[in-house]
Specification:
282 residues; mainly alpha; two-stranded antiparallel sheet; 59% helix; globular
Length: 282
């Protein structure tokens, strides 16, 4: 199948964009599943709010203040990483030969990193300057659960990844002890239920902290989880990440579908696990 978007675009559209080697197919679809699931969760929380299940909470915010040193430093660091690694991937000659090794190495473009650090810091300063007041004001805002979807998605992503990583290494302890650092920083090796347990615990803690009733919140989360898992699984199928088996001999419903979208044996699964299918080369 297609381990990264370079091969997907090359096969389907016929042209090559070397920069797409940096974007793994599985990770791309997982990221899309988070974004689309955030939209589904927002709709569900609004529906529950209209039914009277949720109440708003009040929070104080300060507006009109200039950008603080901490904000400028954080944005500068984000800009530096972006320039050093992402832009650097197009400037370092050997970066795209092995994108994963490049991302995890100390290689990059220092000049691009510094320029992007200045750009990100300047953008944050300019953003704050547009709303600056002579005397900053403190206001009280009413916050509904759907207004917190962005935070919820971040908690789900961070704790889901950490949980999936930790549980995978616990399941494969012997492999972990042979190369602890490599196992922790490798892009592969994720256990679904580990991510579910840790992300679920983090989101429940977040909901309790912000006085969101758990049962209606879980009811809104159920279709979101189904959608996220189904869409993320498309990434597994596109990348060939362990999804393989016998040919689907049922009639293909749409003639315009590529054969691999309906019936495929996944001979080159990216895990290189199991017994290779006879006669398969490449």
């Amino acid at each position: 199948m297609y381990p990264n978007l370079f091969y997907l675009v090359k096969d389907l559209l016929g042209f090559e964009l070397s920069g797409l080697k940096l974007i793994n197919s599985f990770g791309f679809f997982v990221a899309l599943s988070f974004l689309l699931s955030a939209w589904v969760l927002t709709l569900e929380l609004r529906r529950k709010q209209a039914e009277g299940w949720f109440q708003s909470t009040e929070e104080k915010i300060t507006i009109g203040a200039p950008a603080g040193l901490g904000e400028l430093v954080i944005n500068g660091l984000l800009g530096f990483v972006f320039g050093y690694k992402i832009i650097g991937a197009f400037l370092v000659p050997t970066a795209l030969d092995d994108p994963q090794s490049f991302i995890l190495s100390s290689q990059g473009s220092f000049l691009a990193g510094m320029l992007m650090a200045l750009a990100f810091g300047a953008l944050k300063w300019w953003e704050k300057q547009k709303t600056i007041l002579k005397t900053p004001e403190t206001r009280i805002l009413r916050i509904w659960p759907q207004d917190r979807v962005g935070d919820i998605v971040i908690y789900a992503a961070v704790f889901g990844f950490l949980g999936a990583k930790v549980f995978h290494n616990l399941e494969n302890w012997k492999e972990f002890t042979q190369d602890p650092i490599g196992s922790l920083i490798a892009f592969s090796g994720l256990t679904f239920y580990g991510g579910l347990i840790c992300a679920g615990a983090a989101i429940i803690w977040y909901a309790r902290r912000h006085k969101i009733p758990l049962l209606p919140f879980a009811d809104a989360f159920a279709p979101t989880m189904m959608f996220a898992y189904a869409f993320g699984r498309v990434g597994c199928q596109i990348s060939g990440d362990g999804d393989w088996g016998i040919v689907n001999n049922s009639h293909k419903p749409f003639s315009w579908l590529p054969d691999w979208a309906w019936s495929y044996t996944y001979p080159h699964n990216v895990l290189e696990a199991g017994v290779p299918i006879p006669g398969c080369t490449g």
